[in-house]
Write a structure and sequence with these properties.
By secondary structure, this protein is mainly beta. 10% of the residues lie in helices and 24% in strands. The protein starts with a helix and ends in a 25-residue tail after the last strand.
Length: 269
């Protein structure tokens, strides 16, 4: 596909293997099968409050539909390259967003924030092949992303979303339980972030709604809806699929460490 995008996609696949550097730890609190491994299909654990326990280390499921053309033997998360792939490319974006998207395609993703060691932003981070640790505390859910050792706060203390939030990479998130679904609303996301490697944009009016549903011990779905009248003609909904990494831990990762690629980026006409 695009030379710069292919380079970025290949680099994103590297840290997964590095997690083997950490020593294995004893797994506690999860059901085990007869062979001593975690039973990933057992019913989802619950907190003392009765809601599903989302805590743990999670990584997006690989999906052949997410792998960029030209990259072989590596399978990426489904929406790494194209967040709108389920809709096709017809009449998805409003004219201004379509023009910006086409401009980014023409320059082969050379301005992708990730290519310049900037954050992916909360609308995109679950499309990257790196893990996230979820930590539940009273009044607050913490998402610790391995990508650039980034964190996200989801406030669960009943506060409303701010009316005029300062635009940031990760945005301002509030969450609440709706039966067994954790419902999260995020606003205040800078328009500097991209929604995927191909360059789908968004404005700072974007409202992102996520529905976290832990299916069982080892699997979780996050239904994500993007509402942004300055970008999409109608709201866009996708489902990110995650799997548990039992017995593993986050590893510190910074894009800027030993970075040698930016000086070689070339836009091909």
């Amino acid at each position: 596909m695009y030379r710069t995008v292919l380079c970025i996609a290949c680099l994103l696949s590297v840290p997964a293997a590095a997690r083997s550097q950490w020593p294995a730890r004893t797994i506690t609190g999860l059901p085990l099968s007869g062979n001593g491994n975690v039973s990933l299909t057992s019913p989802a654990p619950r907190t003392s409050g009765g809601t599903p326990d989302l805590s743990g280390l999670w990584i997006p499921e690989p999906d052949p539909r997410g792998s960029p053309e030209g990259v072989e033997n590596v399978v990426f998360p489904r929406y790494l390259m194209n967040v709108a792939q389920d809709l096709g490319e017809t009449n998805v974006l409003v004219p201004a967003a379509e023009a910006l998207y086409r401009e980014r395609l023409a320059t082969e993703g050379v301005d992708d924030p990730i290519a310049h060691c900037q954050p992916p932003g909360s609308p995109r981070v679950f499309s990257l092949p790196k893990p996230t640790k979820i930590v539940e505390t009273p009044g607050l859910m913490l998402l610790l992303h391995e990508h650039d050792t980034t964190y996200r706060q989801i406030f669960t203390d009943g506060r409303p979303v701010p009316e005029d939030p300062l635009p940031t990479w990760m945005g301002y998130s509030i969450g609440r339980w709706d039966h067994d679904t954790f419902l999260v609303t995020t606003v205040g996301m800078t328009d500097r972030s991209w929604l995927d490697a191909a360059g789908h944009p968004h404005t700072e009016a974007l409202v992102m709604t996520e529905r976290f549903h832990r299916i069982d011990v080892g699997h979780m779905d996050i239904e994500v809806t993007y509402r942004d009248a300055g970008t999409f003609r109608t709201p866009l909904t996708i489902t990110q699929k995650l799997r548990l990494l039992p017995g593993q831990e986050l590893i510190e990762y910074f894009c800027s460490d030993n970075e040698k690629d930016q000086q070689r980026y070339v836009t091909v006409k």
